[in-house]
């Protein structure tokens, strides 16, 4: 029996437009009956999912982490399972879930894989899969234009980060956990729900997307060059052991700053401080490899 799937592809993503026909033929080959809906941009995906929620068995999203983030709140609301086609630049959620970058293989995961319920992070009512952050990473997000990502691919993150690092200046923040309050001078605070973000960096060495906790780190460096030795360690999350990095774990976290600061969720700026973060255990069902 064919499964009915709502297919949403971000045509503006790095590979979305040019691989759309390949995506559709691969899914039909795997036995899916498709409703391929289009939207002007991923911010309209929520409306599309609500429109078709009673006509489909699952939602398949093709794009990067920002595209998936645009659909996440409505997936929780409708309780429809998610199939992921990694068509973006970094594809950090796909990396966390071990979903292959090969489109034919990714469609096989949706057709034949298992359904796993994963946690979500939430900040000020906005859900996220990977990481939410403020400080340096926001400036990187603001400079990572579509043109830069299309031209340089995954290396766009490294090139842009190098430009931003030397300009970064520490800011004051207060981190509140249920049992303590800490005042910090930092260039970046990141709160992770999943494992990978920013093109393959790990938020902590043991971070998992179903561990029912948030992993926080704060980069408390005084000079821009202090971040250089940390960069290679960030690939495995080992930067949290450095003396100028603070690492915390909790299910609920509050961040306060003197003036409102933008917060980046899965590569998109979506809210501002003051910020209340929490983990939502087993919030959404996703197809993953067996």
TrEMBL record:
Cofactor(s) named in the record: Mg(2+)
Keyword Disulfide bond: no
Single GO BP term: phospholipid biosynthetic process
Keywords for the protein's UniProt record, in alphabetical order: ATP-binding, Kinase, Lipid biosynthesis, Lipid metabolism, Magnesium, Metal-binding, Nucleotide-binding, Phospholipid biosynthesis, Phospholipid metabolism, Transferase
DAGKc domain span: 1-127
PROSITE patterns documented for this protein: DAGK
Superkingdom assignment: Bacteria
Family: Belongs to the diacylglycerol/lipid kinase family.
Protein name as catalogued: DAGKc domain-containing protein
């Amino acid at each position: 029996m064919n499964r009915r799937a709502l297919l949403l592809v971000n045509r503006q993503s790095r590979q979305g437009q040019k691989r759309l026909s390949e995506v559709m033929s691969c899914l039909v080959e795997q036995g899916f009956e498709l409703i391929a809906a289009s939207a002007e941009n991923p911010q309209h995906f929520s409306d599309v999912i609500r429109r078709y929620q009673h006509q489909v068995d699952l939602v398949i999203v093709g794009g990067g982490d920002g595209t998936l983030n645009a659909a996440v709140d409505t997936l929780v609301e409708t309780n429809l399972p998610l199939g992921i086609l990694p068509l973006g630049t970094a594809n950090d959620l796909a990396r966390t879930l071990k979903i292959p970058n090969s489109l034919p293989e990714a469609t096989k995961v949706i057709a034949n894989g298992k359904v796993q319920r994963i946690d979500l992070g939430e900040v000020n009512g906005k859900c996220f899969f990977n990481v939410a952050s403020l400080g340096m990473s926001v400036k990187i997000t603001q400079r990572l234009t579509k043109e830069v990502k299309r031209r340089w691919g995954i290396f766009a993150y490294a090139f842009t980060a190098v430009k931003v690092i030397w300009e970064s200046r520490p800011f004051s923040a207060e981190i509140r956990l249920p049992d303590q309050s800490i005042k910090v001078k930092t260039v970046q605070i990141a709160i992770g729900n999943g494992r990978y973000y920013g093109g393959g960096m790990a938020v902590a060495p043991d971070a998992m997307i179903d561990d029912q906790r948030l992993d926080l780190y704060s980069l408390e460096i005084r000079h821009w060059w202090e971040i250089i030795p940390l960069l290679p360690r960030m690939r495995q999350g080992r930067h949290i052991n450095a003396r100028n990095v603070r690492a915390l774990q909790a299910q609920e976290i509050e961040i306060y700053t003197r003036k409102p600061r933008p917060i980046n969720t899965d590569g998109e700026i979506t809210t501002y401080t003051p910020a209340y973060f929490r983990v939502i255990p087993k919030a959404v069902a996703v197809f993953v490899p067996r």
